[in-house]
Amino acid sequence: MTALPLPGRPADAADAAGTAVADVRRARRGARRSRRRVLGGLTCALAAAFAVRVLLGDYTVTVPDLLRILGGADIPGATYIVLESKLPRAVLAVLAGVAFGVGGAIFQTVLRNPLASPDVVGVSLGASAAAVSAIALGGWEGWSVSAAAVLGALGVALVVRAVAGRRGGFRLVLAGIGMAAAMQSLVQYVFTRVDEHDVQLLLRWLAGSVNGVAWSTIGVLAIALGVLLPLTAVLSRALPALELGDDTAAGLGVSRPRTELLLLVAVLLVAVAVAAAGPVAFVAFLSGPIARALHRGRTTLLGAGLVGALVMVVGDHVGAYAVDDLNLPVGVVTGAFGAPFLLWLLARGHTGRRAA
């Protein structure tokens, strides 16, 4: 006859281990379901905001007319408004918002500092200073200005990284703040060397705007994101380990060159977005914390990208129609509402992070 297992025997330990494993699996399934719900909700919200931006406003376009226009039909008035104003603004807002959101979230996650966004550490201002100098002092335009913005962002990022050294952290943030101040001084110097017409042009560019951008510029941004985002997806698998610290990440097999490459990709994401839409304030700064708050403290680059795109589209729509007879750049709107919302998040304690 088989004896019944007594308390404290191996059978009890096996049962306890099995229960623990089942609990872990249930927790993981619940986290995955929650993540899918959040991402699905953000996707639906972005689709709705995109539709509102394209279909509604001063000139309302019906869905059948939009489909006819996209199919090649020429509807007097509507075709021009959709293809030359509404649709390019909405598409650029989505692409630039994704780039800002993903790039900012990578900075904050890899450096383990919510202040280490491209806005704060000087990357965005480096791109702005280079582009403004190219426009005002060099007389450049088009592709050359975009190239100058990318090179400016890369230059500032390399200087900040060299000054901060291998330890990074708050040292990197302080170095970035110093470089941002230097770049701001360069921008102010450029303003003293241009006439009134160029001042208006530079102010519009520095505010960050998706208005009046050519389809060719949008196409270049789309190609750049088509290269950078898949690379980000491959490199970002190391993010959960990087959040635990450099030493722990190294112990888990994450090499420093991989980390540096991920930061370089983040710089390029922000740089190409600035080159296309200007330095839109607070989008890169806020997208990561908002996405983490929605995901209960978990870092997710896809969520940050969706939040960035949603903020850009909604901000552009508000800027276009909030004030009668005044088309505000999207950067003005995000700057006005970004800081108070960040303070609200900090006050409620929703900016904590946890590895995904």
From TrEMBL:
<dbReference type="Pfam" id="PF01032">
    <property type="entry name" value="FecCD"/>
</dbReference>
<keyword id="KW-1133">Transmembrane helix</keyword>
<feature type="transmembrane region" description="Helical">
    <location>
        <begin position="328"/>
        <end position="347"/>
    </location>
</feature>
<feature type="transmembrane region" description="Helical">
    <location>
        <begin position="120"/>
        <end position="138"/>
    </location>
</feature>
<feature type="transmembrane region" description="Helical">
    <location>
        <begin position="261"/>
        <end position="287"/>
    </location>
</feature>
<feature type="transmembrane region" description="Helical">
    <location>
        <begin position="170"/>
        <end position="191"/>
    </location>
</feature>
<dbReference type="GO" id="GO:0022857">
    <property type="term" value="F:transmembrane transporter activity"/>
</dbReference>
<feature type="transmembrane region" description="Helical">
    <location>
        <begin position="212"/>
        <end position="235"/>
    </location>
</feature>
<dbReference type="GO" id="GO:0005886">
    <property type="term" value="C:plasma membrane"/>
</dbReference>
<dbReference type="GO" id="GO:0033214">
    <property type="term" value="P:siderophore-iron import into cell"/>
</dbReference>
<dbReference type="InterPro" id="IPR037294">
    <property type="entry name" value="ABC_BtuC-like"/>
</dbReference>
<keyword id="KW-1003">Cell membrane</keyword>
<feature type="transmembrane region" description="Helical">
    <location>
        <begin position="90"/>
        <end position="108"/>
    </location>
</feature>
<protein>
    <recommendedName>
        <fullName>ABC-type Fe3+-siderophore transport system, permease 2 component</fullName>
    </recommendedName>
</protein>
<comment type="similarity">
    <text>Belongs to the binding-protein-dependent transport system permease family. FecCD subfamily.</text>
</comment>
<dbReference type="InterPro" id="IPR000522">
    <property type="entry name" value="ABC_transptr_permease_BtuC"/>
</dbReference>
<feature type="transmembrane region" description="Helical">
    <location>
        <begin position="38"/>
        <end position="60"/>
    </location>
</feature>
<keyword id="KW-0813">Transport</keyword>
<feature type="transmembrane region" description="Helical">
    <location>
        <begin position="145"/>
        <end position="164"/>
    </location>
</feature>
<keyword id="KW-0472">Membrane</keyword>
<keyword id="KW-0812">Transmembrane</keyword>
<feature type="transmembrane region" description="Helical">
    <location>
        <begin position="299"/>
        <end position="322"/>
    </location>
</feature>
